[in-house]
């Protein structure tokens, strides 16, 4: 370690205290991404400020020393967006200690939460206050408020409540020069100049480090109804979604598609996962209805629509949850899809979106193209068919070496992306760009759009010290 490194570490330690900085083997969990695709990460230190002011002071010190900074919340990124590179020059800025709920107001229906608050904690605190924070995703027990906003996370209830961006009213952030921007406004209407908060949401920490957010809350549901359905094909899934939407769009909280390939990896690999249907099928959907209205009649709605779809041959079988425990068990089958694929071996993930009407065609065309690209591979698509976002993933062939399979990652993603492009879709729906997809930006967002992004980055972070190597090529 040279004198400059020693000096900046001494400065950071003075700012956050000895308990606020980690080195050596203690850094290991912070240096590897969740998918274990990048295990070469190195860092000068992991810095854990306990307040916005401490973070501001750390940023100013790093900027003065020319030290890059990589923000990290729960380290659940699917695209290695919070992982340092192998140079060892950067410090990881962890928000773990910035974990307070500062305020909750059930008249305004708002909550102010710091960046390190675990998403599940925010949900629980809102519920205890008699309100709902609706953002929900598989990693909610680890993901943080700062992380889900920095990536504009989507999740299971986007069809009803929108992405993280739609649930945010205001932000507090430390900008790349170390200044603190306090934009924690709880206003539903604020048409004052550029919407800086929306620039930071989805920027993956490249334009500023989110430290706190004013979030929207909603009334708690008074009635819920959940079912798992076995379907004829992908078209039947879309038809069923339309039936529910046309009957009562406001009741649809989530509508999740699961292919046989993906569901069966869960059933075969995740302990305790059981299918509440008589037989396995080729396609499944999870229907989740909720309403804050008393006596909303959701059970009747669920039964009526499923009966209609069964008469048309679209739904082959269905299991309706009779209790909270059964609802949780059905949801577990959906939430364990990433884990089921991980336990089955290597997989390549394509987080894509297309217009909702094109989802069945996209799944079929992509699956066929992937099977031709790598014979014996297993397409395992699943996701949020109600908002057009499907995780068009591919599991390695059982007889193929994992490293050899992963070496084809970009061929696999390119194969899916070309199908998605035909439908006017996006190669990044809810996971972001991170470190994995930067090389795709020129092709997909080149020209005026990418030039504007690069100009914004250069204006706000001229030294390129905020999460370098992410988002932009």
From TrEMBL:
Domain FAD-binding PCMH-type, residue spans: 39-220
Cofactor(s) for this UniProt protein: FAD
> Which keywords belong to this entry?
FAD, Flavoprotein
Which family does the similarity line name? Belongs to the FAD-binding oxidoreductase/transferase type 4 family.
State the name under which the record lists this protein.
FAD-binding oxidoreductase
Q: Which GO terms describe its biological process?
A: respiratory electron transport chain
Among PANTHER family, the record links this protein to: BLL6224 PROTEIN, D-2-HYDROXYGLUTARATE DEHYDROGENASE, MITOCHONDRIAL
**InterPro entries, alphabetized:** FAD-bd_oxidored_4_C (IPR004113), FAD-bd_PCMH (IPR016166), FAD-bd_PCMH-like_sf (IPR036318), FAD-bd_PCMH_sub1 (IPR016167), FAD-bd_PCMH_sub2 (IPR016169), FAD-linked_Oxase-like_C (IPR016164), FAD-oxidored/transferase_4 (IPR051264), Oxid_FAD_bind_N (IPR006094)
One MF annotation (Gene Ontology) recorded for this entry = FAD binding
């Amino acid at each position: 370690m040279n004198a400059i490194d020693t000096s900046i570490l001494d400065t950071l330690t003075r700012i956050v205290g000895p308990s606020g900085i980690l080195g050596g083997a203690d850094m290991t969990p912070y240096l590897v991404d969740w998918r274990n695709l990048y295990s070469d990460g190195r860092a000068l230190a992991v810095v854990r400020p306990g307040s916005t002011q401490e973070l501001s002071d750390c940023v100013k010190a790093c900027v003065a020393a020319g030290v890059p900074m990589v923000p990290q919340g729960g380290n659940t990124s699917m695209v290695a967006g919070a992982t340092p590179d192998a140079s060892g020059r950067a410090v990881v800025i962890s928000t773990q200690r910035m974990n307070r709920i500062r305020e909750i107001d059930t008249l305004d229906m708002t909550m102010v939460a710091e960046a390190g608050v675990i998403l599940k904690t925010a949900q629980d605190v809102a519920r205890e206050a008699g309100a709902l924070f609706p953002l929900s995703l598989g990693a909610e027990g680890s993901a943080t408020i700062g992380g889900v906003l920095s990536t504009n996370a989507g999740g299971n209830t986007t069809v009803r409540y929108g992405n993280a961006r739609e649930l945010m009213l205001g932000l507090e952030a430390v900008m790349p020069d170390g200044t603190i921007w306090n934009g924690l406004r709880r206003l539903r209407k604020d048409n004052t100049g550029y919407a800086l908060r929306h620039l930071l949401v989805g920027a993956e920490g490249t334009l500023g480090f989110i430290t706190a957010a004013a979030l929207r809350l909603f009334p708690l549901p008074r009635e819920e109804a959940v079912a798992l359905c076995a379907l004829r094909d992908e078209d039947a899934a879309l038809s069923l979604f339309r039936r529910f939407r046309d009957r009562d769009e406001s009741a649809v909280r989530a509508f999740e598609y699961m292919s046989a390939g993906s569901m069966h990896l869960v059933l075969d690999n995740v302990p305790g996962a059981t299918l509440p249907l008589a037989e396995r099928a080729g396609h499944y959907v999870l229907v989740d209805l909720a309403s804050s209205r008393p006596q909303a009649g959701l059970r009747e709605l669920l039964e009526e629509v499923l009966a209609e779809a069964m008469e048309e041959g679209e739904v082959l079988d269905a299991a309706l949850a009779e209790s909270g425990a059964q609802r949780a068990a059905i949801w577990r089958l959906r939430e364990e899809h990433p884990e089921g694929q991980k336990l089955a071996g290597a997989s390549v993930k394509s987080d894509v979106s297309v217009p909702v009407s094109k989802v069945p065609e996209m799944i079929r065309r992509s699956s066929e193209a992937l099977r031709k690209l790598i014979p014996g591979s297993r397409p395992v698509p699943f996701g949020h068919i109600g908002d057009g976002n499907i995780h068009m993933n591919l599991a390695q062939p059982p007889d193929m070496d994992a490293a050899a399979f992963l070496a084809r990652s970009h061929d696999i993603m390119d194969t899916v992306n070309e199908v998605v492009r035909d439908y006017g879709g996006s190669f990044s729906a809810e996971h972001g760009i991170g470190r994995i997809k930067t090389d795709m930006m020129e092709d997909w967002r080149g020209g005026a759009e990418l030039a504007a992004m690069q100009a914004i980055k250069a204006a706000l972070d001229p030294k390129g010290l905020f999460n370098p190597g992410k988002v932009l090529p």
